[in-house]
Amino acid sequence: MARRDQAAARRQQAQAQLDDLQKGRRPEEIAVVDAQIREAEARIAVAQREFERIEKLAASKVASLKAFDNARGDRDMAAAALERLKRERRSQLLPARSDAVEAARRNVAAAQAQLAEAETALRERSVYAPKAGMVQDVFFREGEVVTEGRPVVAILPPANRKLLFYVPEVDLARISRGAIVGVGCDSCPSGMTAKVTFVSGEAEFTPPVIFSVQNREKLVYKIEAVPQANAAALKPGQPVDVVLDHER
After folding, report:
1. Which of 92, 116, 134, 190 is the most exposed, fewest CB within 10 Å of its CB?
2. pTM: predicted TM-score of the whole model, two decimal places
3. Residue 17's closest CA among 98, 105, 118?
């Protein structure tokens, strides 16, 4: 679990880096450059006015040629600084270089492969029952060592529960495979029914579990039936009453 979570975090980090490279700078960073551009525009306006003033003075021989050259140089430097800031702002709106983006994509793919490997390893260590049901028996407890292939618990799904009852020979003609019988017990919901799935072709003595001294020596036929609904209400080994010739 920890290995899977770590791989997922690396995958998320790699994806975030790729997304960041594919878009420009954040608005706050661009706002800083915009402020610098406005400041540079103000400086170039001042430098331009100073150059025009010195130019007029130099034409009338009041200002020296050196002062004229200095004013022109200040104006050109302010213009160059403004152009540099404008280029920087345009570059901030562009994504990263193609080689950097491609490297980030490969990093995302590698992180995705590590995450898939970790998830596969986690699934191989996790065992799930093929069907949900009531736990009938627990063979190993927490902390015990289980060898490969050994069952840990026994589960009885509701669909696998069936009724087992016996009928005497005189009643055998009243029941067949596919017949619907009524089912009742102390804790069963009313109106329960079951569908007969097996009718034994051989007679046998009444099992002792029925605890009937009078019927113990009589021959009976084993019948199996599957509950049609509320199978979870039946508990293994629970005594039930079965009614033949149940109306559908």
Report:
1. 190
2. 0.43
3. 105
